[in-house]
Amino acid sequence: MILSNLFLAIGPGQIAVIAILVLLLFGGKKIPELMKGLGTGIKEFKKGVKEEDSLEEPKKKD
To answer: pTM of whole model > 0.70?
Structure first.
């Protein structure tokens, strides 16, 4: 309960500080590569979920 209230308390100032820290840690050239990898991972996850749903549908009809 306390942890969920903590996440609700994050404002634009804290987000800016986190973004600056990420930029300093990884550098400007690494961030696009990280985001591309994240996007690819999300796309693969969605594809896997859709495939799993399509495999389960015929089983329900039997």
So the answer is: no
Per-residue pLDDT tens for 37-55? 999 999 999 998 888 777 7
Say how far residue 33 (Cα) sits from the centre of its chain.
Answer: 14
Amino acid occupying residue 11: G
Could you tell me if 26 and 34 are in contact, meaning their C-beta atoms sit under 8 angstroms apart?
yes
- The residue ranges of every structural domain in the chain are 2-61
d(CA 18, CA 16): 5
For residues 48 and 56, is the Cβ–Cβ distance under 8 A? no
Q: Which residue has the tokens 């089983």?
A: 59
